[in-house]
Amino acid sequence: MDTKVTTPQIKGLIISLVLIIYGIIIYFVDGMKHPELSYVQYAFFLAGIIWACISYSNQLNGDVTFGNLFAHGFKTTAVITVITLIYTIIALKFLFPDMVDKSIEVTRQKMEADGKATDSQIEQTVSMMKDHFILLAVVTIIFGSAIFGVVSSLIGAAVAKKKPKDPFGNQAI
Question: How many domains in the chain?
Fold first, then answer.
């Protein structure tokens, strides 16, 4: 009987849905004014990738290597990245177009409260953000997910049990 292994695509879809639902909740409770809430999203991402690696190891009864686990975690990361990219573009363009303005206003308020930038520097930053917000979001998601995915996959591969069978152990001499 073959062991049924949950694919990185399914795990990535599940984790993405959790991240998207949490992001929507943050949007509706006006959580953009509280950037510390985004750390919870990072915790979900980290926990999700670690879960994906541990689950993979358990489904194969530990007959995996560190490299197998890391690859599985990073494949899951790639799926999460693609799904969240697609969702983000749809959300910013069609579902919640006011999210761009809210994000820019939060940035403006932080810059004004910080007091390190002049009014012209603040206006220049806000103008640039308006013109390139979606591009900045896409780049941030791609590189942020890649870096966070590598770290999460390394942790997941390190903590999952590994008892790979020796492929040469049953050979007669």
Answer: 1
Burial class from Cβ neighbours inside 10 Å (0-12, 13-18, 19+) for residue 149 reads buried
CB distance 172 to 93 below 8 Å? no
Domain range for 12? 8-97+145-159
The answer to whether 51 touches 104, Cβ cutoff 8 Å, is no
Two structure tokens written together for 115: 């007091």
Does the residue 31 lie in any domain? yes
pLDDT per position as a tens digit, 137-173: 999 999 999 999 999 999 999 999 988 777 666 555 5
Sign for the pseudo-dihedral over CA of 62, 166, 72, 4: negative
User: pLDDT tens across 39-59, in order?
Assistant: 899 999 999 999 999 999 999
156, 84 Cβ separation under 8 angstroms: no
Is this prediction's pTM over 0.90?
Answer: no
Residue type, 50: I
